[in-house]
C-alpha cells in the first residue's frame, strides 16, 4: 500500500509547499528553473522538508532524464553506471540522497562528469556540506539551504491530506492540531505518517457507522501514536530521534535514560548491530582517553552482538550502554581531529618538513631529506617519561599550533602533565 506521504508528493512547483525563499515567484532557484539553466547544487536541510521532492520537480519541469542514488546503498560502481548512461542522454540529472555519507573516493568519482556537464548533480544532505562534501565538488555546486516547515506550511499539508481522504470517501476532521505539530517537529513526512496512522486505526469504526467523520484531536493523536510507537519509530524518521536520545543520555552520564531508550529501540525491532555500532563510535567520540577501556568494551559488545543476535544480545547492549553512561567523558581526541581537519581545509596540502622525510636515495640525501631528524630513542635519558627530543613535527606555517587539548579527567590530567614536561617551551599545556 502506497504511503500517504508518497501519494501526496507534489508534482510541480505550484503544488510544492514551503521553501518560498527559494522557489517563490522571483526567488533565486525559481528563476534558474524558469530559465531552464540550472547548476549542480546541494540541498542542505533537516529530514522531511522536501529535498527529494524538489529535485524530482526540477527534473519534471525541465523534462530532464532523472537518475537517483542513495549514498547509503550506492558506491563508485553505481555512480559510474549512471554517468555512462547519462552520456547517451541530454541534460541528465543525478540526485544523490544523503550525499554526506559518500566518502572522498566516492565523491571524487563525480567530479569529472560534473565538470564536463555530463550530469547535473543534485545532492541532498542533513549535514553541513562545508564539512561533509569535499572542497573540489563543493566548489562546482551551488548550496541551497532548505528550512523546517513552519506552522502555516504544516497546516497546508494537513488540509491537503484531509482533501485527499475526502476524495476517497473518508471524512476526516481536524479539531486540534497541537499534537500533530509537536510530533512532526517541522517534518512533513512525520506529519503525514502520523495522520495516516490515526486514520487507518479508525477506518474500521466509521465503516460500521456511515456518515461519521474521523476526528483528529490532541487526545486521539497522542493515544494512537503512543500505542504504535515502536512501529512508528522503525518505519518513519523517529528512530533517528530515539538513537539521538540514547546517545545524549549516555553523553549526559544517565544510565537510566540510556537503558530506557535502548529498550525503546529493542521494542521497535532496531538492528542490534546498528545500536552496537553507535556505541562503538560513542566510546571514542565522547569518552576517548578519559577511559580507553570503553572502546575495548564497546568493540567486544559489537563482536558479541554479531555472534549472538536477539534476544540474548540485548543483555550485552545493556551492559555496554550502562558502562558508557557511567564512564568519565572527554571529546578531546575528537576535537583534536576536527581542529586538524580545519587546518587542512584552510591551509591545504602543506609540504612535509625535510627532516621528517625518509631519504632512501643519494639524491634525496643531497637535497636534505632526513637531515637534522632526532631519533627519540637516542634521547632516552632526557625525561622520566622515556626518549624525547624536542623538534618540529608540523609543516611550515603551522609551527607551534596546538590541536589537542586534554580533557579535565584524572587520566587526561596525567597526560597533560606528561605533555607539559615535554613541550613546556613549545605548547601551552
Give me the strand/helix succession.
Answer: HHHEHEHEHEHHEHEHHEHHHHHHHHHH
Number of strands: 7
Largest pleated sheet:
5 strands, parallel
Poorly predicted tracts of residues = none
Name the strands of the widest sheet in spatial order. Answer: 2-3-4-1-5
Q: What is the overall number of helices?
A: 21
Mean pLDDT: 88
Secondary structure category: alpha/beta
Helix content: 40-55%
What distance lies between the first and last C-alpha atoms, to the nearest angstrom? 62 Å
What does the overall shape look like?
globular
Radius of gyration over C-alpha positions, nearest whole angstrom: 27 Å
| Strand-residue proportion | 5-15%
Can you characterise this structure?
The protein is an alpha/beta fold and 429 residues long. It contains 21 helices and seven strands. The protein has helices spanning 4-7, 20-23, 28-35, 51-62, 76-86, 104-116, 129-132, 135-138, 151-167, 178-184, 188-208, 218-227, 229-235, 238-251, 255-267, 272-287, 293-308, 313-326, 332-347, 362-366, 410-423, and strands at residues 41-44, 66-70, 93-97, 120-125, 142-145, 172-174, 214-216. Strands 2-3-4-1-5 form a five-stranded parallel beta sheet, sandwiched between helices. It has a two-stranded parallel sheet with strand order 6-7. Helix 5 links the parallel strand 2 (66-70) and strand 3 (93-97). The protein is globular. The mean pLDDT is 88.
Amino acid at each position: 500500500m502506497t504511503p500517504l506521504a508518497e501519494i501526496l508528493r507534489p508534482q510541480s512547483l505550484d503544488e510544492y509547499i514551503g521553501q518560498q525563499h527559494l522557489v517563490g515567484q522571483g526567488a533565486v532557484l525559481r528563476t534558474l528553473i524558469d530559465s531552464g539553466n540550472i547548476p549542480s547544487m546541494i540541498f542542505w536541510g533537516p529530514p522531511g522538508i522536501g529535498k527529494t521532492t524538489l529535485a524530482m520537480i526540477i527534473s519534471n519541469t525541465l523534462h530532464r532524464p532523472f537518475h537517483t542514488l542513495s549514498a547509503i546503498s550506492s558506491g563508485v560502481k553505481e555512480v559510474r553506471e549512471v554517468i555512462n548512461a547519462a552520456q547517451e542522454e541530454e541534460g541528465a540529472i543525478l540526485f544523490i540522497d544523503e550525499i554526506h555519507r559518500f566518502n572522498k573516493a566516492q565523491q571524487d568519482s563525480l567530479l569529472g562528469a560534473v565538470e564536463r556537464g555530463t550530469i547535473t548533480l543534485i545532492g541532498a544532505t542533513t549535514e553541513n556540506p562545508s564539512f561533509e562534501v569535499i572542497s573540489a565538488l563543493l566548489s562546482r555546486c551551488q548550496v541551497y539551504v532548505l528550512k523546517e516547515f513552519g506552522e502555516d506550511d504544516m497546516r497546508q499539508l494537513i488540509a491537503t491530506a484531509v482533501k485527499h481522504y475526502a476524495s476517497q470517501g473518508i471524512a476526516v476532521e481536524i479539531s486540534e492540531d497541537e499534537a500533530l505539530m509537536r510530533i512532526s517537529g517541522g517534518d512533513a513526512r512525520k506529519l503525514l505518517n502520523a495522520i495516516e496512522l490515526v486514520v487507518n486505526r479508525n477506518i474500521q469504526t466509521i465503516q460500521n457507522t456511515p456518515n461519521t467523520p474521523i476526528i483528529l484531536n490532541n487526545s486521539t493523536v497522542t493515544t494512537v501514536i503512543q500505542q504504535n510507537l515502536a512501529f512508528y519509530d522503525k518505519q518513519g524518521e523517529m528512530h533517528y530521534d530515539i538513537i539521538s536520545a540514547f546517545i545524549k543520555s549516555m553523553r549526559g552520564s544517565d544510565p537510566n535514560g540510556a537503558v530506557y531508550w535502548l529498550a525503546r529501540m529493542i521494542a521497535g525491532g532496531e538492528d542490534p548491530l546498528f545500536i552496537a555500532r553507535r556505541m562503538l563510535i560513542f566510546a571514542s567520540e565522547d569518552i576517548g582517553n578519559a577511559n580507553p577501556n570503553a572502546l575495548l568494551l564497546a568493540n567486544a559488545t559489537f563482536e558479541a552482538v554479531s555472534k549472538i543476535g536477539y534476544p540474548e544480545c540485548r543483555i550485552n547492549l545493556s551492559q555496554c550502554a550502562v558502562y558508557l553512561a557511567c564512564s568519565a567523558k572527554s571529546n578531546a581526541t575528537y576535537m583534536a581531529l576536527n581542529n586538524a581537519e580545519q587546518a587542512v581545509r584552510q591551509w591545504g596540502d602543506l609540504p612535509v618538513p625535510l627532516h621528517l622525510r625518509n631519504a632512501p636515495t643519494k639524491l634525496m640525501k643531497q637535497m636534505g631529506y632526513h637531515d637534522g631528524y632526532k631519533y627519540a630513542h637516542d634521547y632516552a635519558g632526557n625525561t622520566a617519561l622515556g626518549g624525547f627530543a624536542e623538534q618540529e613535527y608540523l609543516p611550515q606555517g603551522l609551527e607551534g599550533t596546538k590541536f589537542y587539548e586534554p580533557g579535565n579527567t584524572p587520566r587526561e590530567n596525567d597526560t597533560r602533565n606528561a605533555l607539559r614536561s615535554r613541550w613546556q617551551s613549545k605548547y601551552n599545556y
